[in-house]
Amino acid sequence: MRKCLYAQMGFVCFAAVVLLVTIALGQNPAPAPASTAAASSATAVAVAQPAKKVWTNDDLGSLPAVSDPPRTAASTKRPVASPGKASAKAPSAASFQAQIARLQAQLPPIDDQISALQDALAGKPVEEQRKFGWQKPGDWQAQLTALQKKHDDIEVQIQEVEDKARHSGVPTNVVP
Description:
The protein is mainly α. 64% of the residues lie in helices and 0% in strands. The chain has a domain of 67 residues. The chain contains seven helices and no strands. Helix 6 runs antiparallel to helix 7. 3% of the residues are buried. The mean pLDDT is 74.
């Protein structure tokens, strides 16, 4: 009963705050009372300003026809790309070679682990004691599957880098 009463009081308070904020935002502050001298000078300024001309089709017909706006030298110039900026954006063949070499260096240790696990699963004697890399003891098949997936992912990354190099204009005989 008490929780229900507090919930109702909270809702009523929230509704009252929302109502007061809505009312406060809806009201515009009243302008400060102006003296009669200020009011008369404001009307004099408004009268002194010339009325804006409203152009009609008849008025436009008397104007000389303009076929094209005059072109300035600044509007006809186009920005010329500097050769230094273009080469800074496009990666060089050396950067692609470095990426591929880094990825290919990750493959031999994974291949060694895969072959050791395949030998162990085939029943061949294991040369060293098995290291548990957060896998359950005896769960060699799960570790083999994870290593094969990692190997495949690295090969896909190598292919993606080779594709980027080819699309960037690097010759295929430069990229390993």
